[in-house]
Amino acid sequence: MPKGSGRYMAWPATTRYGLSVAPGNLGLVQDFLNTITEGTLAPPDLLATLESAQEWADQVLEQWSSIDELGWAKILPRLTENDREALVAFRDQLFEGLFGHSYSEPASGPGRDNPTYRPLMTVSTRGLELRPDGEGWKYFETALLLICHQGQLEGVLRRMKSCKSETCDVVFYDRSNNNSGVWHDVKLCGNRANVRAYRERSAAN
């Protein structure tokens, strides 16, 4: 598999939903967001406990290193409980920033209120570059934001969407030609929405 192809890479949170993953480093952002427990299939929230969060982190950091073409991936320390709580809070903030809604009730924990992220600007043969910076897992959060920023500049971030279903927030990468997808699974969430709309129309008549 070519490095950076992204489509069939084994991102642990995203592939448990049977989804095609976002290309390159954007797959890391998608996988982080898909650590949630989705409302219908309800697999476990991978950040719910320190043990499950560490298991996810070990897999995702290895996967990131295997496809990273920016030189941003690096070994990070083992998660602490404070790290886990901060990641849960950051996940909710990222949902809100990208999709206009929070995944959960406002989370408490380190980094929830007015978080600050300071990327590092470097000069190279390619010109000025922004790189992630920060201690420990703050570096990881900064990297996610910079990946989103790069995706926005390249016009691909708009293809990463949260499922439109009221009971599902699974994040999918829309590969349709006109970027018109709204469901992470048309047969599951799309059909359920159609049935609900039909029942509402029937009840109104």
**Helix content bin:** 40-55%
Content-based structural category: mainly alpha
Q: Roughly what is the average pLDDT, rounded to an integer?
A: 82
Computed Rg: 18 Å
| CATH architecture level-2 label | Orthogonal Bundle
Please write the CATH class name: Mainly Alpha
> Major β-sheet, in short?
2 strands, antiparallel
User: Strand-and-helix sequence, N→C?
Assistant: HHHHEEHEEH
Parts with pLDDT < 50 across at least 5 consecutive residues: 1-8, 106-112, 197-203
Backbone shape: globular
Strand order, main sheet: write it out. Answer: 1-2
How many domains? 1
How many strands appear in the DSSP assignment? 4
The tally of helices reads: 6
Task: State the end-to-end distance.
Answer: 55 Å
Beta-strand fraction estimate: 5-15%
Q: How do the strands and helices of this protein lay out in sequence?
A:
Elements: H1 12-15, H2 26-33, H3 50-67, H4 81-99, E1 120-124, E2 127-131, H5 137-154, E3 160-162, E4 171-173, H6 186-204
Antiparallel strand pairs: 1-2, 3-4
Folded structure, characterized:
This protein has 205 residues and is mainly α. It has a single domain (12-204), classed as Jann2411-like fold (Orthogonal Bundle). The protein has helices at 12-15, 26-33, 50-67, 81-99, 137-154, 186-204; strands at 120-124, 127-131, 160-162, 171-173. A hairpin with an 8-residue loop joins strand 3 (160-162) and strand 4 (171-173). The relative contact order is 0.14.
